[in-house]
Structures are given as structure tokens and as C-alpha cells.
Design brief:
Blueprint (H helix, E strand, L loop, with lengths): L7 H12 L2 E4 H10 L3 H12 L5 H12 L8 E4 L5 H14 L6 E5 L2 H15 L6 H15 L1 H8 L3 E5 L4 H11 L3
Parallel strand pairs: 1-2, 3-4
This protein binds adenosine monophosphate.
Length: 182
């Protein structure tokens, strides 16, 4: 977990490889569907372009399908999901049905000015339609309102592993590796 620009995607790829698990990024799955102009992609695009979350029913159904696939059976890393309290509840159900559990929730912390700076830099090269300044700022607000409350939920469950997300990707990756249980 972490606000937009915290480096979630970069760290998630590395961490999934380290645990030998399926890397499941809801943002990536939505972007692939947008590129292929599927029905899901057409629904998701409107929300993504506005910096809003895709509705929970749509996102939850997509994650339930993805987690049921073979490559996620032994181990998986969720990147960008859950992002709402409704998604937390649904994920609990999905995992119960699969007989699976979460081992930990890694949250990256980065100060807001740095986030906006990083995202504006990314905007120059990413071509992502949700990397404009207004949308970038709105996505931060949506994160604070909708997703930050999830940190307390996972802290109460004893699963939260907070990691300083400032510095280079390598530095942050090392911090994550050090913070994980052996
Ligand atoms: P990301 O690449 O994780 O920053 O996600 C890009 C966009 O995809 C987000 O701004 C949302 O519009 C959408 N999205 C990704 N994950 C979720 C989620 N768990 N719930 C709702 N919308 C999501």
C-alpha cells in the first residue's frame, strides 16, 4: 500500500519476484483492459482518467477471478488492492473461500510534496492519461479519504509493515527486505 507516487509498482514487482508469487496489480490489469478496449476497460477508463476509484463491485470481481488462477495458488502479492474498506471485507471473503491468508501488508510512506514531484516527473515519460497535475492532486485526496483508513485496520490485525519510501528504489527495496519476517 501507499499513496500514488510512493513507488508501489516498482517495489511490488521486486517483492513478488522475491517471494516467488504472482504479481497482481489492479492498476495494470485495468490498463491492459483499457488498451484492449474490453468492456471492463471501457468502464474503468472513465474513472481512471478522472483519478477516481473504479467501483468496488467491478474491482472485487476482477480480483476474485485473478486470485483463483493457478499461478496465485501458492503465493501472491497484491499491488494497489485493497484500496477501500469494502475491498478489505471482500478480500477477506475471497481469501477465506480460497483457504488463504495475508502474511503482511507493506505500506510505503512518502511526504506529499515528494509524491507530487515524482508523479509530475513520471508524467513526462509515462503517457498515462491520469498523470496530469489536477488528476495527480485529486488522486492524493482520494487516497487520503478512501485508502489511508485501511492502515489502521491492518495495524490492528498486526499485519502492517510500514516502510520509509524516501530514497532510491534500491534503498527502499532493501528496507522492505529488512522489515519482512525471515
Ligand atoms: P495504480 O496503477 O495502482 O495507481 O492504479 C491506477 C488507477 O486504477 C487508479 O487511480 C484507479 O482509478 C484504478 N484502480 C487501481 N486499483 C484500484 C482499486 N483497488 N480500486 C479501485 N480502483 C483502482
Amino acid at each position: 500500500m501507499g499513496p500514488p507516487g510512493a513507488g508501489k509498482g516498482t517495489q511490488a514487482v521486486a517483492l513478488a519476484a522475491r517471494i516467488n508469487g504472482a504479481h497482481i496489480s489492479t492498476g495494470d490489469i485495468f490498463r491492459e483492459n483499457v488498451a484492449r478496449q474490453t468492456e471492463l476497460g471501457q468502464t474503468a477508463q472513465r474513472y481512471m482518467d478522472a483519478g477516481e476509484y473504479v467501483p468496488d463491485e467491478v474491482t472485487n470481481a476482477m480480483v476474485a477471478d485473478r486470485l483463483a488462477q493457478d499461478d496465485a495458488r501458492d503465493s501472491f502479492l497484491l499491488d494497489g488492492y485493497p484500496r477501500t474498506l469494502d475491498q478489505v471485507a471482500k478480500l477477506d471473503e475471497i481469501l477465506t473461500d480460497l483457504g488463504s491468508t495475508l502474511d503482511g501488508v507493506v505500506a510505503l510512506t512518502v511526504v506529499e510534496d515528494e509524491l507530487i514531484g515524482r508523479l509530475l516527473e513520471r508524467a513526462k515519460v509515462s503517457g498515462r492519461s491520469d498523470d496530469t497535475e489536477d488528476v495527480i492532486r485529486h488522486r492524493q485526496d482520494v487516497y487520503r479519504t478512501e485508502t489511508e483508513p485501511l492502515l489502521a485496520v491492518y495495524r490492528d490485525r498486526g499485519l502492517l509493515i510500514e516502510v520509509d519510501g524516501m530514497g532510491t528504489p534500491d534503498e527502499v527495496g532493501k528496507r522492505i527486505a529488512d522489515a519482512l519476517p525471515a
